[in-house]
# Entry
Amino acid sequence: MSEESQIKWYVLRAVSGQENKVKGYLEQEIARQQLEHLIPQVLVPMEKVIDAKSIAAGKKPKVKEKTFFSGYVLINADVNNSIVKHVLSEIPGFIGFLGNEQKGTQRRDPVPLRDHEVRRLLGQVDSLEDAEATLDAPFIKGETVKVIDGAFNGFTGVVEEIFEERKKLNVTVKIFGRNTPLELYYGQVEKNVG
# Structure
């Protein structure tokens, strides 16, 4: 078997919130040890979201990037190579491989992604990069929300109207037994779970 055929896509499990650090450490080691031929690509799929807190503060909406698969890093590598195994074992925040466990056994070999999974994931990564920013928590008309900021903090109400271009909602809350309409920014409310 040629060296190239050993390189496959895997999903690394990382400490949630440290996906980019894992990627950064890994890329540093790849460059330092010149392992590009064994680990040609490392990806952390990201999506663009609008920071609702900046909107709630009345500021211009900020677009930030957020990890699409929290706790996971995609890697194209020859993980059977002893050097690669050693490099991965030394990376802070690296937990293991997805699919490394099997019921009733302690399987040690990482399981590569299937070709159709790779095509779907890489296609999704490309579309995420090209996508416009979306809001963290879009709302729908008739949905119950809880006010989390401002004078009416703690009140619950129903979304009556949505103004996407201004990132605002018309919400009706009951104050002293009367329905009272409020115009609130997206960041001033949260979905009412339960």
Summary: Residues 115-130 form the longest helix (16 residues). The longest strand covers residues 156-163.
